[in-house]
Amino acid sequence: MPGYRRGAFVRSTALRLSSLLERGIQAEELARQPGFLQGLDPKAKIIGLLSLTASAAWTRHLMVFAFLMALALILAAASRIPLKVLAGRVWAGVLLVTGVVALPAVFLVPGDILYRLPVLHWPVTSQGISAAVFLIARVATATTFSALLIFTTPWTHVLKGLRVLRVPVVLIVILSMTYRYIVLLLQTAYEMFEARQSRMVGRMDAGQRRRMVAATAGALLSKTLFLSEEVYFAMRSRGYQGDVYVMQEFRLRPYDWLAMSALTATAAAVAWVG
Amino acid sequence: MATPLFELLDVRYEYGAQRGLQGVTFNVPKGARIALLGANGSGKSTLLRLLDGLYLPSAGSIVFDGVPLEEARMEEEEFVFYFRRRVALLFQDPDVQLFNSTVFDEVAFGPLQLRWPKDTIEAKVQQALQRLEIAELRDRSPHRLSGGEKKRVALASILILEPEVLLLDEPTGALDPRSQSQFIHLLEHLDKDKTVITATHDLDIVEDIADYCYVLESGRVIAEGEPSEVLANVTLLERANLIHAHHHIHGAEEPHYHPHLHPPHA
Fold it and tell me: Which residues, in sequence order, are CB contacts of B70 under 8 Å at separation 6+?
């Protein structure tokens, strides 16, 4: 089994963790810059964009998908979300994940045979291609609208918007704390890999890499358990007794009502056209 | 001697088979500034958590303003409101204490749990942030802040409750010298009637933050006294692992080695 340079494996893992942290920071920066969607009340945005996301599930025409995607791109441009961010973080992932899921449909869906694969002789059907294209288009459209919500709304505002929409407070608190401590956990993992890298020379075989990853996961789990107990104490120390009380600050302005109505009306029209 | 706010009688605390505290007895008068001195693992943090009602003694008793801190009592909502309003703990690691998504939410968390009116909370959060010179951090995520900023936010999150008793666990730990000095300045300018109990092994700050000290070693109080007395007792500090003997070279005409003690105020 070929050996990996120890530094290379640990460094690449640390770099991936660092890149995840940077993505989180960049998403929050995008959410705080001026722009059309950034200027809307979170409730209006959540209702408007989620209804467009849902409408993508009803669509059965490629032209409607094209319209929805064009609308998403206009909203992204008006909100100063760079295309490369959407391409790198949303569409590449959609193609990779949904593409793998959709690929078998090209061969397995029965219908008019357009082509046969050499050697394997698997049939490529027009109905199969159509099913794969619809699946990818549906996921890409829905994901783009969801991503626009995340890229244009600070996470805290998303949570506050959800609270106002009657999502249970306990769920909101869990989401909020998960986000908060995922960052801390990523940072801890990054520092652990960095510390390891600083003490390593030579090559590392597959067994050593597995042991290292397992040891890191074990240490992180142990830290997480410790941290969860400590956080509980910190909450109790400030009066937490099982119920959570929150501040609600958002009020819809006429501008928010107008934008929300326009987005939901578009979603309704898309669902009606099908 | 003023009326004791806390009365500790033969307090013991065990973590499973491990002994945390082994028979601690002392009183804390109202308005006292007390330092709990000891090396890592001496029981300082455990003692603070017992005083904050987060842990309950395995044996012995802790009485707060005439009321014993017992399990049944700590489950009474009315008493918890009363106690949490009066006693607040600053944790050693601010990452533990800062669990909300923004600095505003963090500082507002305590008052919200104690059901203060929202208008009051809004105003008090602003005041607390201004007092600690962190008003500009209001909408920032706590995890993106520097160590010094995190400590300030953590302090704001307990000072907003206007507690009578502040329990501070290594408040200057991991701070750079300037942040440390600013932090001590803040503590010195707290209302004089506040009771402040600080756990630390940083001898440089003791005289600034305390007028009485307890020295802990392996879960026991091994000495007590005014800061000047305790800090002058080199044998005691060495025994408590707060200072240590080592060899070094003086910048004299001829370099020489000898066992040398570094008492903080020699």
Answer: B56
* Interval A104-157: pLDDT, tens: 888 888 888 888 888 878 888 888 888 888 889 899 999 999 989 888 887 767
What's the token pair of residue B263?
A: 């008492």
CA distances A24 to A13, A97, A154, A272, B194, Å, are 17, 21, 11, 37, 41
C-alpha distances in Å from residue A83, one per residue of A24, A66, A140, A150: 17, 16, 14, 15
pTM of this prediction? Answer: 0.71
Chain A closest CA to B9's CA: distance in Å? 23
**Tokens encoding A17:** 């963790």
HSE of A31, CA atoms in CB hemisphere, 13 A: 23
Cβ–Cβ gap A156/B102 under 8 Å: yes
Q: What span, in angstroms and rounded, lies between the C-alpha atoms of B42 and B40? A: 6
What is the identity of the amino acid at A116? Answer: R
- What was the pLDDT predicted at A211? 83
pLDDT category at A3 given cuts 50, 70, 90 is very low
B122 in contact with A, Cβ within 8 Å = yes
**Predicted pLDDT at B142:** 84
Nearest Cα to Cα of residue B219 among B7, B19, B16: B19
Q: Which of residues 151-180 of B touch A (CB under 8 A)?
A: 157-158, 161
Q: Where are the alpha helices (DSSP H) in B75-140?
A: 77-86, 94-97, 103-113, 118-131
**Helices within chain A (DSSP H only):** 6-32, 42-58, 62-78, 83-86, 92-108, 126-152, 155-164, 169-197, 206-237, 254-273
